[in-house]
Design a protein that fits this description.
single chain, 158 residues, mainly alpha, binds heme C
């Protein structure tokens, strides 16, 4: 058949388009690279917001004043003891500047991966204490207090 290669390309393209319609990104542990298992996630929160995040990798709460405020309050109890009240760094590194031990933290997907799955040493997985909604709120707070180079704020990239 003369048009076979074309047909194959068309079929592949169609397949990709339908796949990408509702595809979720793969989230991985920052240290081991293992896919994160969301069945461990603490219950609660808005499943729609989290679903949207899993598909886009963009935190739907960024810039949302109400969510930023909730994230601030959660940050104060869950994170400030180790990262400092203004995320200036203490036991753990600063989170408001543009230096990241894990460069992927300049994206919301990367930041979520460290929050959910943890990193080294005292940075344990947070799914034990926080549901995914609360993680997105804390992330929105962290982006809100960012003091680094605006050009390095990769989470704002389209
Ligand atoms: C018990 C202390 C402790 C608590 C509580 C804690 N962290 Fe951490 N965090 C650490 C340490 C230590 C590291 C460095 C780990 C590493 O380099 O692998 C870290 C690393 C991180 C990183 C990676 C930073 C980078 O430069 O790439 C992020 C992001 C982070 N923490 C966010 C949070 C948030 C948000 C919370 C609250 C939900 C939190 N942590 C709670 C101790 C803590």
């Amino acid at each position: 058949m003369k048009n076979k290669p074309l047909l194959i390309i068309a079929t592949l393209t169609l397949g990709l388009v339908s796949l990408s319609a509702n595809a979720e990104l793969t989230f991985r542990n920052a240290i081991t690279g293992e896919p994160l298992d969301f069945s461990f996630a603490k219950k609660g929160g808005d499943p729609e917001a989290f679903k949207q995040f899993k598909e886009t990798g963009k935190n739907p709460y960024n810039g949302n004043a109400e969510m930023v405020k909730k994230g601030h309050d959660l940050y104060m109890t869950a994170c400030s003891g180790c990262h400092g009240h203004n995320a200036e760094g203490k036991l753990g590194p600063g989170l408001a500047d543009d230096y990241w031990t894990y460069p992927a933290n300049a994206t919301d997907k990367g930041l979520f991966e460290v929050l959910f799955g943890g990193a080294n040493g005292m940075m344990g997985p947070q799914y034990v204490n926080l549901n995914t909604e609360e993680m997105l709120q804390i992330m929105a707070h962290i982006r809100d207090i960012y003091k680094g180079d605006p050009a390095k704020a990769k989470w704002l990239d389209k």
